[in-house]
Amino acid sequence: MAEHGVPTDTFDVTKHDVTGLAVDSYQAVVFGSSLHFAEHDSRIAWCIRNYRSWLRDAPSAFFSVSLGIISKNHKDRREAAWLADEFLRQEDFTPSRKACFAGALRYSQYGSVTKHLMHWIAKKSGSDTDTDRDYDYTDWPAIEAFASDFASLIHSCRQPDPSGPRFNPVDKPHRQYSARLRQSVGELLD
Questions:
Q1: Domain 2-103+140-159+172-183 is of which CATH architecture?
Q2: In angstroms, rounded to a whole number, what is the distance separating the alpha carbons of residues 20 and 46?
Q3: Nearest Cα to 80, choosing from 125, 113, 114, 129?
Q4: Looking at 83-134, which runs of residues are DSSP E strands?
Q5: Residues in the chain, pLDDT under 70
């Protein structure tokens, strides 16, 4: 995103308490969640629920990470995409952009039970099963295209900077971007 002129922060919900994250202090947001045992991370769901009204006006994106998306079994690929869509439906969240990506299979970082389970899943889906090494299935060009597309959306929603001070000590920061504003302007121009 930074390569496209969009400054970013990264917040890892697995390492920090999400209740301290002020999603609405940002101008746009991208949520990403891995899919484990047919479930997306509940901490991402919490963020979406707690900032739902703000998310309706802001440029937003969601991506799901799952090895199922590259399975040789068409049913597994379809299910991985469906689970991402179902997660968004359950959270009543329609992001401006969404995608599903494969990630890495890091056998070296798994305990014995997880390693055995991931081996079984990999074998079932036609992925690599040698547990003595790690595998990276990340489609970096697809991720770059997703980021570029989202950055373009953010730029298209950009509003001119207000004259005068940008922050009022009492109010929240003013967002420079609004997906709803961009849509309204587009409708007026049509």
A1: 3-Layer(aba) Sandwich (3.40)
A2: 12
A3: 125
A4: 97-101, 104-105
A5: 159-190
